[in-house]
Write a structure and sequence with these properties.
Layout: H1 3-23, E1 33-39, E2 55-56, E3 62-66, E4 71-77, E5 82-83, E6 88-92, E7 96-104, E8 111-113, H2 125-128, E9 130-133, E10 137-138, E11 143-150, E12 154-161, H3 163-198, H4 201-221, H5 223-227, H6 233-259, H7 261-264, H8 266-285, H9 291-318, H10 325-346, H11 354-357, H12 359-492, H13 500-514, H14 516-547, E13 556-558, H15 560-571, E14 579-585, E15 591-593, H16 595-614, E16 623-632, E17 635-642, H17 649-654, H18 672-682, E18 686-692, E19 696-704
Parallel strand pairs: 14-16
Antiparallel strand pairs: 1-2, 1-4, 3-12, 4-11, 5-10, 6-9, 6-12, 7-8, 7-11, 13-15, 16-17, 17-19, 18-19
Helix pairs in contact: 1-10, 3-4, 3-12, 4-6, 4-12, 6-8, 6-9, 8-9, 9-10, 10-12, 12-13, 12-14, 14-15, 15-16, 16-18
Amino acid sequence: MTPTTLNRLLIVLLLIAGKCTYGSFKKDSLPFNVAYYQDNTNKLKATQVHEKLFVQLPNREVLNLGVDDATFWIKLSTTKDIVFDKNVLFIEQVRVKSYEMYREKQGELPHLQQPLVLPGYDKLKNVQGISYLLTDTIRKDEVIYLKLKSHENFIAKISIVTQDNIVAKNSFRDVFFGIYTGVMLIMFIYNLFLFIVVRDKSYIHYVFYILFTWLTQISIQGYGEIYIWNSLPLVNSYSVVLCSLLALLFADLFTISFLNTKVFAPRAHKAFLTYIVLILLTICCIFLLDNRTAFMIMQVIIMTGVILALSTSYYVYFKKHFKPAGYYNIAWTILFIGAIFFILKDYSIIPYNNFTTYLLQISSALEVLLLSFALADKINFFKKENEIAQAQALNASLENQKLIKEQNIVLEKKVHERTEELQSANSTLNITLTNLKETQSQLVDAEKMAALGQLTAGIAHEINNPINFVTSNIKPLELDINDLKDIITKYEEIDFDGDVKAQVEEIEAFKKQIDLGFVNNEIVSLLSGISEGAKRTAEIIRSLRNFSRLDESDMKPVDLNEGLQSTLVLVRNNMPHNLTVINELGNLPKVECQPGKINQVFMNLVSNAVQAIKSKKVPADEEFLTIKSWYEEQQVKISIKDTGIGMTEETKHRIFEPFFTTKDIGEGTGLGLSIVFSIIEKHKGHIDVISKLGVGTEFIITLNVNPE
């Protein structure tokens, strides 16, 4: 039997049960005229009540007076004498907050009558209702007033019964509620066990839904006040509203997880999330509201939630073809119909009897059972889907194996062909790599030769200046020495036998002629110039000797300041006239390095700095090249800073790339800074670049004193 068929059958059975009970209904079984007065002030006294205007109730058995925060006075009157045989006026309402009964005879003030306490049932008086023992005869001039105030909505049935009827009715209620509690307990334990086994969150939501549904029912029936929260009157007052909202909260959580609304019904999923937030806010504010307002809000929320749940479940079942939703539809439909019939009895549309009284519990128990079936069906549904998926996966796997075998043959052939192509390409690449290495070697050599040529030209110019200075001084020095030699010769040729005085005067005249004092001073000056030229030549030779260690590969301790100074001497000839070199060389320890390689780094960076200054379109009156060195944290740092053209960010990020250059074609290979970077990296140091276009560039080299 499908869930839809079962759903229709149960609805028909409920309708038939309703019709059957309606046929047993006896109108006007209460021998009183019933009227009521609503005291909104809650302050009316019994001595004042006869002055009020009472409203007649057409239905004399069921009092349905709404949810107002008021005290209701019920007036029972008769037009004839009525004889009773130890009968009891019984009011079936366990949620009455306060109750009193007054009897008034003609010409007498109303007097209070105490409620009947049945022997052995004094602890159950709230469960069985309110009982007042009637006198044997009620005269037509007598009036009975009932003063009643309820926790929530005021719905009560008034009947004339015997004490045995009350005891029997109470016993039946206990037995029925015991069965209901047993069903709920079994479902609670069963689904809790399933949650522990399968770890599906739908089960834990469902377990809490069962718990709070049961708590709602014991609150409605009055058992909660006696057995659970008898010492907490505030909790008892709000127990129906609070437990109903909590049951609805977990029902929504169960619906979301069971129907998988996030996948099957995204819009409904958002509505459920909003609805849950609304429920939580209501729960938080429940104790800030009066009981009746909270009850009315609870009724609206529950009706909205039921409609949302049913509409979503029907959509998922019929549109998304999720079969477990069928049992869910049946369960909520039964509860919905049961709730409707339960409410209809309060308006006397169907009779107020045992079936309709316990209809909400019956439908609630059926709903719990059917939702358990729904969860089991969900497991079977996913199990079946999993089996189908596994079968499909197996078929797909077999098909894939067949395809793989076919593809392997094709792939092996293609791999063989590709291998041959790769071998041929590899051979070609090896040849190309060899050529590239040779080309790279040639380019490096070209870079070295370019640097060497630049260095040689500078050295030649530097040496030529002092040599020319020496050469130009030799001829004047030779003439001055000849003059001195002539004077000496004249002194040697003096004839002491002749006129010595005349000969001496002749020599003195010759001295004046050649200006002997000037000759002596000139000789000193010329010798000083020759000495200075020799010193400068010696300095250049010494710097060249220091720098000439270009191909040394051994690591040795070196004074880097000496290398910097030698580099400056060798490139001095290439510096423009407006360039000022600032030396700020600190006290450095000797650094383990390859001196020739490090000198090459200095030469490249200083040459680039000079070139950057020369490249300025509008040079300043004075440009600066600043060379600094210092020792910091076991490291030696060297800064070479210029006031040249600077670099853009893009250029700065590419300057160490091989073959990248900003110079014109033929002016550079683009390997200078690449070689610099490689040398510093081999020395386990690093080089930082700070540059700004139009301002200048600074290279900062960092080397460890003892690189490992």
